Amino acid sequence: MAEGEWEILETRIAGSEPILRIPAAPNLKPMPGQYFQVYAPGFDETFAVSLFLIDNHHTYWDLTGEIPVYWTPGIRLRWRGPLGRGFDLSPNIRKTAFVPWLDHGLCLLPLVQQALSVQAAVVWYSHLVPDWLPPTVEVLPIELLPDVLNWAEYLAATCELNHLPELVAALGLKLPFSLNFSLEVLVQTPLVCGGIGECGVCSVKTRGGWKQACKDGPVFDLDQLELAA
Ligand code: FES
Fold first, then answer.
1. What is the domain extent for residue 111?
2. N or C: which end of the chain has fewer CB within 10 A?
3. What are the pLDDT digits (tens) for 155-164?
């Protein structure tokens, strides 16, 4: 974990997702799904903002998250990271699926690119087809999601904590379930203190007891989460 300062180069909206551009930080190697805790000194901010890297161009980085509207070019930001557990996609996997549950899934983009870089097949299950999705990605409607259990070797999803039961139902799974392939989900929940304050806001119930999404996640194995029947 490192810390430092970035200057905002640009902010923009892609679809409905806010994007922040900063100078590239090539010495940092965040895994897809890991995050940075970021704040702007001098502003009356209650909490740091959790930002996910979506594009690591060699001269700039693009990040997404709940970016305050008053963060504008030239403002200097303090950051620490990368934090938490990211996605773990083996380079041997050849059949991948992605499910941005009820959102655009922009923070899945680096993982999509990682899968494509090793010539894995990539299927995107959503009614939302963002314009930043690489053209080699196959897009299927969410109603076909149960089929994924028959062919995928790996599935990555994003989902708010309180919507996880809906994701499980959409997959056609019944509680309790076990899976014969890796299904990882980035659990979207406030990462208020990023583990520094032990605030517990990010608590997630798992088969191994309560975990903290800020440190033990935000990426979890779906079959390790304790979900209400
Ligand atoms: S966000 Fe405070 S303990 Fe996780």
1. 95-224
2. C
3. 999 999 999 9
